[in-house]
Amino acid sequence: MTKVVKIGGALLENPAKAVNEIRSLARGRTAIVHGGGMQITRMLERTNVPSTFIEGLRVTDESTLAAVCAALLGEVHTALIQALHQQGLPAVGIFGVVRAQKKSGPWGFVGANVRADATSLNAILDRGKMPVIPTLAMGENSLLNVNGDETAAAVAVALECSELLFLTDVEGVKDAAGAVIERSNNPNELLAASFVSGGMIPKLKAVKAAMEGGVGLVRVGRTIFEGAA
Q: What value does the mean pLDDT take over residues 111-119?
């Protein structure tokens, strides 16, 4: 059994706490996918570059892409790997196993159709190591900023995972009244709901992609998705 754990930028503000969360879930073959949205925004603020989002995805021009690389690889990735090692987890940072195509539309250097190299990842997992993957993809002509949730789904599908777990600072997917939805087997229904917006849109799209790709259980906070999408 293999599982993928995706951890976002808010939790990564405290790498030691993030590792405690990962440790509680990382039993057996586990791959980690990490984002870094908060850290990227902070990096952009230092250079007075505004952050713009369309449908929950960050618009990425050349200046923004440089900040994405600096924040993800230079700050988040290194701090997370160090914290994992300090707590005895066999983490291996791996960059270059995620590929994508440049997304059409107003997003700039943003990737779509994300896919992962299962052969390389399985080689690391087979040695008892824990691959740690940043959400930065190899495109045809440039690096591409890719959504962390979509990346996690692509990794989970490539590895034929039994579970995909989204560690997030939100409690879960909430209904129109603001209550957490405990269980669902239909992300399509939630994607069509008027109360779903912002960053939850790409997250639910990732849930759908993972389930359609054969992942049996997906968890977003306390919300559990099971069954055919």
A: 96
